[in-house]
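Q: What residues go here?
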């Protein structure tokens, strides 16, 4: 039985005829590619840490080398994952002539992009868009490759001001990225207007 056999005909007809589509994805999308969700049980070295405690400005200030090591490990997990058929289907749908398909995601990985999609907004930031923790300058570097988790890795220094380079994610207690938030909000407003108009 194919996936389309499991979807009600009315839904398939709507999807096939739609010209403007908004897709919102979250952790389950990446989990299908083998990326542990943020709340999943951690493994090995990181079992004794609550991810929510590592993903705060305070944790970074207290021990940036520990935070950098955890994010480097997560980045290695993402680099080892591949887009799954759902990612590929969205990319193919987005590429269809005459279709305006916009993707906003809460995921910080690049699996949508690697599948060939253009993502309107990474609402919780982008794991790979590294920037300076002090001056905010973007950093044209990557994480070190971490095969096995390590407790500490020294972050790289900013070429502009000498501050420490941090992950491009939104930590608990931080504001959402302004442009991503505005783009996401615009999609939701457009969607709400279409629902009110009987779209």
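A:
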């Amino acid at each position: 039985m194919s996936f389309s056999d499991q979807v009600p005909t009315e839904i398939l007809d709507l999807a096939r005829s739609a010209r403007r589509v908004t897709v919102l994805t979250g952790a389950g999308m990446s989990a299908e590619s083998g990326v542990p969700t943020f709340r999943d049980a951690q493994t090995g070295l990181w079992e004794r840490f609550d991810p929510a405690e590592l993903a705060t400005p305070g944790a970074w200030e207290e021990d940036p080398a520990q935070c950098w090591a955890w994010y480097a490990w997560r980045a290695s997990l993402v680099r080892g994952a591949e887009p799954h058929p759902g990612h590929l289907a969205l990319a193919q749908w987005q590429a269809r002539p005459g279709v305006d398909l916009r993707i906003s995601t809460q995921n910080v990985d690049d699996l949508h992009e690697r599948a060939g999609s253009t993502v309107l907004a990474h609402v919780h930031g982008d794991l790979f868009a590294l920037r300076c923790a002090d001056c905010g300058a973007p950093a044209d570097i990557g994480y070190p490759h971490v095969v096995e988790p390590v407790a500490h890795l020294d972050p790289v220094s900013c070429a502009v001001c000498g501050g420490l380079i941090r992950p491009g994610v939104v930590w608990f207690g931080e504001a959402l990225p302004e442009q991503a938030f505005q783009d996401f909000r615009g999609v939701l407003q457009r969607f709400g207007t279409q629902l009110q108009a009987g779209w």
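A: Context that may help when evaluating the design: The domain at 22-168 is CATH 3.30.1600.10 (SIR2/SIRT2 'Small Domain'). The longest strand covers residues 125-132.
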